[in-house]
Amino acid sequence: MPIHTSWGMLLEEESLPFSCDAVAGTFDGVYFRGITIHAEPVVIFQWLTQMRVAPYSYDWINNLGRTSPRSILNDQPDLQIGQTMMHIFDVVQFNIPYDLTLRVKSRSFGQFLFGDILLSYRIISINNNSSRLLVKIKRKFNRGPLGFFMRYFLPWANLIMHRKQLMLFKELSEKN
Asked: In this structure, are residues 19 and 101 in contact, taking their beta carbons and an 8 Å threshold?
């Protein structure tokens, strides 16, 4: 598979079930991302839930230049369906501490620009102190010139942004 469609994934991981597979909808593209993190699922999941306050990628691009928090914020409300994550997504499903599924907000600027995006973060425990953080992204591109452009640009941009995000989650989780 080309690198922009699958980065860091083991071949057998791509055939695993992800929560986003149970959400209705038709999609044009499927992309996978994965990384090994030397931490327990509960630690990694804490960082995933912090996407409510920041995207943990290139902050100068998608967080208005503000640095994503580098410590766990203990004053956050409990995770709930419908909460906003990374500014443009809603939580649609979760299973603490193993998976989190997000969908781009309906009728939002994010959906206008990027199309329909559904993504699941799945954490698989390897042993007492190592886990795999996997992401499956499903996309339906908009029609018209913008959709045509995004069909070719967005998978590469997503690779760059998600790679940064996963590597930062690795660094922060392993410091705990």
From this structure: yes
